[in-house]
Design brief:
With 695 residues, the protein is α/β, with parallel strands linked by helices. Helix content is 44%, strand content 12%. The strands form four sheets. A seven-stranded parallel β-sheet has the order 3-4-2-5-6-1-7, with helices on both faces. Strands 8-13-12-9-11-10 form a six-stranded parallel β-sheet, with helices on both faces. A four-stranded mixed β-sheet has the order 15-14-17-16. The longest helix has 28 residues. The chain starts with a helix and ends in a 12-residue tail after the last strand. The C terminus is likely disordered.
Length: 695
């Protein structure tokens, strides 16, 4: 037992040293399994099935030493961080104070045998400026403990350390980047001269700027993916930072960017971690694949590419599986790509978390985008002495070089007129605000060379259609695409003309980024048409549309930094401060004592009532067969995600009532009436009975 406690303590202390908490980490590691010294737990080791609470004992010992953060980490190392509760809580309550009362009343199995083997160290009490800081620290310490506990146990069970993490040092990774971009110099065109200038500026700033908060505001086409990587590598190399974390809003961008990083740095240095990636960790898996699978548990690789959902929900979680990786955020460069997509209903909690990582955990955070959101005021609240530094100010490049399109504003257009305008172009993209509108406009087009994209198509289907679209665009063939906003999320396509239904200015500019993307056509021949539709905007888009209209009225050039700032400020003003923390996350954290479980239950970036319907087509047919046979595994559901369509409750209910679904015992739903899945538009919005379903 002592060997495991010592091993866990050393690992935990080593992890916590990254944020000057080595002593607290060692204490938590030594204390976490003290309850296993009880006779009752020893009976369990001999085959008894009795339940033994072994975590509360160590927590109580930490509490006696007035080390509340370590006590919470120990209390939650199996069941998750509990809510603090109040000191008057009954001993049968699952709160922290309820469990401490249980210990104080002698209701735990006697466990004092540990005192004959060692003593817990005296640790200086850590001071905090407020509850937000203390809660964040406790969760980071908890991360160190659960990762140390898992790793020490894994080593014991395997008879030695398994291959984990690894990767090459930052010096070698930066050398690989320099080799990759060496062919770009000297630049041969005006546009490439600007891109190379931005790249060199980012490298220089990586060395000059001490760790802190940064913005990187680069026009679309300025090469921000490689430029941000160049800054991060130089910065990490100069200041001894341990890894790069890329936080990206959508998996479609992740897949593209992660491939770029692998091309530059090598597969062995890049972990892509999101719901769409599967790693086999079984014995038959190759060693490289198994290493990647293990790295998803604690992010111990040089470069991690993940989603905003994975990143932020982990920072507000209370379960060990989500929190285990958090300590590896300390002393990292964290790039928030497409920073304008930070979720508004959780904006203040997200900014608070970023500020904590910068202030107390040695991280550098970079908000990277072409349309920088107006977050200065919120960051000042949580990081008053560390204003954001712009890595590439506008005077460092010529904005006009990146002007690749002309914006044209239209009034209200009927869908028939929109379809006619699209049909008049050999190649054109039209982006609309709802799935219903996308199907309507597509239905009005001549089907030769016409394509539809929306989330009513399962992801594997969308990928196949996008592949065909790219081929036709490259070959100069007719290609007219109607899509929802999903195509704006960094999807690499290049159209000579784009039509965008009125939306938020950030969405309009993202759509414009699909027009003349490579800058091969004159700007005056690359028209982005902004129009009002005959359909009122969905309620979700009402405020962004209103803020966008205000910015468009005030500024002639929609992509100017002034217009963008006006838009985001107007949007935040329209929503009001209460909308920036819709679930009152920070209020609960400030008013209640260590409410870990309550916060985890409230913090869900994708807070939608949609349900997945699995489509048994192509490879999905075999995956559904496995599901029907009773197989249930994380790997299976990840694979099924490529063949699932998310639908709203009324849609789901109508499909179910019409007998078009098979709902399995675990609630999983499979489409049985495959007539309802169209090879061009995806899942029909009407059930077999013909009921209309509004989205």
């Amino acid at each position: 037992m002592l060997e495991h406690l010592d091993g866990t303590a050393e690992l935990c202390a080593g992890f916590a040293a990254a944020f000057r908490a080595e002593d607290q980490g060692r204490l938590a590691g030594l204390a976490h399994d003290l309850g296993k010294y009880s006779v009752a737990f020893q009976r369990r080791l001999q085959g008894s099935t009795e339940h033994v609470d072994h975590a509360t004992a160590g927590a109580a010992e930490c509490c006696k030493l007035e080390q509340i953060c370590s006590a919470f980490a120990v209390a939650g190392h199996h069941g998750g961080l509990p809510d603090g509760g109040g000191k008057g809580d009954h001993c049968e309550e699952g709160t922290f104070w309820g469990r401490m009362r249980r210990a104080a009343l002698g209701k735990l199995e006697p466990y004092g045998a540990w005192e004959k083997e060692f003593k817990l160290p005296a640790v200086p009490k850590r001071r905090f400026s407020g509850p937000l800081e203390e809660i964040f620290f406790t969760r980071m310490l908890y991360s160190c403990l659960v990762d140390g506990d898992f790793l020490d146990t894994e080593t014991f069970m395997a008879g030695g350390e398994k291959e984990r993490g690894g990767g090459e040092p930052m010096e070698m990774l930066e050398d690989k980047l320099r080799t990759y971009v060496s062919g770009w110099f000297p630049p041969q065109s005006e546009l490439n001269r600007e891109r190379c200038g931005i790249l060199e500026r980012c490298m220089e700033q990586g060395e000059v700027q001490s760790p802190g908060l940064f913005t990187l505001t680069i026009p679309t086409g300025g090469g921000k993916t490689v430029a941000s990587l160049a800054f991060a590598l130089r910065h990490a190399r100069t200041y001894g930072l341990r890894r790069l974390i890329y936080v990206i809003p959508y998996t479609s961008i992740i897949e593209q960017n992660a491939q770029v990083f692998r091309d530059i740095l090598g597969d062995e240095n890049v972990l892509e971690h999101h719901s769409g990636v599967l790693y086999d960790i079984e014995d038959e898996a190759g060693p490289g694949n198994a290493r990647l699978a293990r790295a998803t548990e604690n992010w111990d690789m040089p470069v991690v590419v993940t989603t905003a959902v994975q990143f932020f929900e982990s920072l507000f979680a209370n379960r060990s599986s989500q929190c285990r990786k958090l300590h590896n955020l300390a002393q990292s460069v964290i790039i928030f790509d497409e920073a304008q997509m930070l979720p508004v209903p959780y904006l203040r909690p997200c900014v608070c978390a970023i500020a904590q990582l910068v202030k107390d955990y040695g991280a550098s955070a970079v908000l990277c985008t072409a349309t920088q959101p107006a977050l200065d005021g919120i960051f000042r609240e949580f990081l008053p002495d560390r204003p954001a530094v712009e890595l590439c100010p506008r005077e460092m490049f010529h904005q006009e070089i990146f002007q690749r399109v002309i914006f044209r504003r239209e009034g209200k257009l009927s869908w028939e007129t929109v379809a006619e305008r699209i049909g008049g172009q050999k190649q054109a993209l039209c982006v609309v605000n709802s799935r219903k509108s996308a199907q309507t406009v597509y239905g009005l087009l001549d089907k030769e060379g016409a394509f539809h994209l929306s989330t009513l198509m399962y992801p594997a289907h969308r990928k196949a259609v996008l592949k065909e679209i790219r081929v036709r665009l490259k070959d100069g063939l007719p290609c007219r695409v109607v899509s929802t906003s999903l195509i704006e999320a960094g999807v690499d396509v290049d159209f000579p003309a784009v039509f965008r239904e009125e939306a938020g200015l950030d969405s309009i500019l993202q759509a414009a980024g699909r027009c003349n993307r490579e800058g091969k056509r004159p700007a005056e021949e690359s028209i982005v048409t902004i129009f009002q539709s005959e359909t009122p905007p969905p309620s979700l888009f009402e405020l962004p549309v209103a803020a966008g209209r205000q910015a468009l009225r005030s500024y002639d050039q929609p992509d100017s930094q002034e217009a963008i700032r006006c838009y985001f400020q107007e949007l935040l003003d329209l929503k009001g401060p209460e909308a920036l923390d819709q679930k009152n996350i920070l209020t609960v954290m400030e008013r209640e004592f260590m409410p870990f479980r309550r916060i985890a239950e409230r913090f869900h970036l994708i807070d939608s009532e949609t349900k997945s319907v699995y489509i048994p087509l192509e490879e999905g047919e075999e995956l559904v067969r496995r599901l029907r046979s009773g197989e249930r595994s994380r790997e299976l559901f990840r694979a099924l995600g490529q063949y699932g369509v998310s639908v709203y409750p009324p849609h789901f209910k109508a499909l179910d009532m019409a007998g078009d679904l098979e709902v399995l015992e675990d609630g999983s739903a499979v489409l049985t009436n495959l007539v309802l899945y169209d090879s061009t538009t995806g899942l029909s919005m009407t059930a077999d009975e013909g009921k209309f379903l509004a989205i």
